[in-house]
Specification:
Layout (H helix, E strand, L loop, with lengths): L22 H13 L5 E6 L6 H23 L6 E7 L8
Parallel strand pairs: 1-2
Length: 96
Amino acid sequence: MKKASFMVSTLTRANPSSKPESKTAFQEIAKLLKGALGLKVNIVGHTDNVGGIDSNMKLSQARADSVVKELSSKYGIDLKKTEGLWCGTIGPRRIE
């Protein structure tokens, strides 16, 4: 099984929308999904370890969901090809 990883950064804790500099990552993900008919990807939302578990789980879910939504609305990716997952501080991208 081949694996690929892309990083999509979000604006702030209060606004889980993607940053403009993540456009290249979105284009690469869309290209990959459009080129591989049977491929399905998991979109995983992460947070740092600042804040409580509940708020970080909600934030990581919002981040994953916003990426799935953007792939569908801006890049025409079928929602059946993506699944939003979240892990909050259980799988942080960095520790602060």
